[in-house]
Amino acid sequence: MVVTREALTVRRSNLQDAAQLMELDALVWNEHNTPAPVLWKSKEEYLLASPPGNQFIALKDNKLCGYIGFRPPTSLISNNHVYEIHIAVHPAYQRQGIGRSLMDSMIEHAKREGIRKLRLRVLSSNPAALVFYKKYGFVEEGRLSSEFYIAGTYVDDILMRYML
């Protein structure tokens, strides 16, 4: 599936996208939105964790500006109706509808695949992401209080879900 909206293209990732996706991870993930920096040691390590096709990527004027990754949370057949997701948007492209386009593509794909539930984790230190997810209809499913100690502060790990 390829979706194009006003110079924005959303498509499945491929092998050639790996280097740019690794760079985006290093840029986006910080102490406000993840318990530890996401720094890949090699392209091979990245590809094992994020195989081609397990992300929708957003391209604006042929520049990678965001992605939404998805995978089954376990290898259990009884859990194959669930996708665990994570989303990242380049800081220069935030608040331009990129996250919304990625989430729309994810929801459309999940419905086609027969997925019934999307789940994610978000830190309490990331209020903008919480607002975004709640606006989409994600609800808090659980909270691990003071789960992480980041930059001198205890941070909750919030589990959220979206039922399709």
UniProtKB/TrEMBL annotation:
Q: Which Pfam families match?
A: Acetyltransf_1 (PF00583)
Q: Which GO terms describe its molecular function?
A: acyltransferase activity
Q: What is its EC number?
A: 2.3.1.-
Q: Which UniProt keywords apply?
A: Acyltransferase, Transferase
Q: Which enzyme class, named as a word?
A: transferase
- Highest taxon, organism lineage: Bacteria
PROSITE patterns in UniProt: GNAT
Q: Which residue ranges does the record assign to the N-acetyltransferase domain?
A: 8-164
The protein's matches in CDD domains, at most eight in alphabetical order, are given as: NAT_SF
Quote the protein name from its UniProt record: N-acetyltransferase
Species source reads: Paenibacillus polygoni
